[in-house]
Amino acid sequence: MKKNIFYLVVLLINVVGFSQKTIYQSDSFEELSKDHKTVAILPFEARLELENKNLSNEQLNKLQEKEGYEVQNALETYFLKMHKRKDYRIEFQDIQNTNALLAQENIDLMNLDIYTTQDLCKILDVDALISGDLTLNALISEGVSTDFDFMSFISGTSDYGRIAIKLSDGDTGKLLWKYEKVITRKSGKNTYDIIEAMMRKSTRKFPYDK
Questions:
Q1: Cα atoms in the 13 Å half-sphere on the side-chain side of 185
Q2: What DSSP element (H or E) covers 4?
């Protein structure tokens, strides 16, 4: 009986684990990216669904912007660190330059979605874009609890939200790679931990590896 319960628990963990992430890579990746030299990382679009928070629209928008820029910063930190180990065949545009160039065109997170990938790549003078969105019920940039509760994990009530990271071609606007993952208590204690863990555990390597 105890052995059966053990196997059931393992099965449930595996089912939940596999359902928490989705990875896609275009069959045309190599063809479309062969001439890529520079990639820009955009600030992420964040949507906060905070309970017991009496916030004005202005306060909510500021918090959402903070989370979006924090993910952009965490991704740059991760890729620069991995660049030293894996030697990507592309370079990443400094996010300060990215954000400055966007600001010069009066582009921010409030109107970013009205521009096409091709438009943004021309403005930033890059070959591809890393962009994405996240939905959160907690402010991960300020740190979250990583205490493990098995029943909460199984029921999904330990989830903090979901994040999607996309890589798009600048010439065609086509989606080249996408990684979606549920953010749980096991993901990490802050934005940097969560980004590093989810990218490191990706079942397919980031496609610009040499």
A1: 14
A2: helix 2-19
